[in-house]
Amino acid sequence: MNETAHRILGIDWGTSNRRAYLVDAAGTLVDSRADDQGMLAAGPDFGASLAALLADMGIAPGVPVLASGMIGSAQGWRETPYLDAAVALEDLPRHLVGVPVPGDAPARTCRIVPGYRFQDADGRVDVMRGEEMQLLGAVAMGRRSGWFVLPGTHSKWVRLEQGVIRHLSTFMTGEFFATLGKQGTLAPLMKGPDDDAAFAAGVDEARRRAPLTHALFGVRARAVTGAMPAAQVRSFVSGLLIGAELVAALDLTGPAAGGVTTVAAPKLQGIYAAAAARLGIDLQPLDPDAVYRAALGVFLDRMDPHEASPL
Description:
Blueprint: E1 7-13, E2 18-24, E3 29-35, H1 39-42, H2 46-57, E4 65-68, E5 83-84, E6 97-100, E7 109-112, E8 116-119, E9 125-128, H3 131-140, E10 146-150, E11 155-161, E12 164-171, H4 173-182, H5 196-207, H6 212-225, H7 233-253, E13 260-263, H8 266-278, E14 283-286, H9 288-302, E15 309-310
Parallel strand pairs: 1-4, 4-7, 5-8, 6-15, 10-13, 13-14
Antiparallel strand pairs: 1-2, 2-3, 6-7, 8-9, 10-11, 11-12
Helix pairs in contact: 3-9, 4-7, 5-7, 6-7
């Protein structure tokens, strides 16, 4: 038996970071790497960066290489067109785009996973790149239908029906929080430690549904008048932003019978769980590494080694 034919290397290649997972047919992790060679650091010579990673991990030529995330964006290695949301997640292995790895002998192709484009009944458009792997993994683990939240820089709320995306809404919660901490009138105040009580108060403020920009200025007003200690501002703003996302999501999900599945690293999962519990939302966690490995298993089973079309 050719052992390499029963392994696959998956690379979660984001804007700032890159994580590689070598798994076997059972979904068992054989080897992994994590580095700072995301899209911004590795570009424009993505091929050389990938070749160095393959050499470091000792990946044999017969092992298929799969990349997902921002590496397939317009700023990445090759822009990979978005799939329409009507394409089932389990059909992703049929829509890969192949990119030759330069200087690799024998010749090797890296296959890039496309993201998704969703348009609602009112014409609003939303997109995702990278999160489709987490959703596919959740489907492979038996979560074929229901609401999902994938927190992060751009938090995704997705409704699946039998493995097909029926709704997608993105919230710039993480990016907005990071920006407020770096510039603007709140930035000098957002230096305090984690404060659970202040975070909960921010979630409660979001529950009141005041316009977000008004509520944020209110944070500054409380701090400069002494109504709120400056040390609490960072946690309060975190609770306010995540709370605003969750309150808006409640309008989408309704009661969300059976709860909402969340895929996030433990720390972020804990933060969202604390805010969700305060708002009466039941979050059911899935480990992000486990779902990624489960998605790789789907590709290993269904990917035709000659199917990816090169650009």
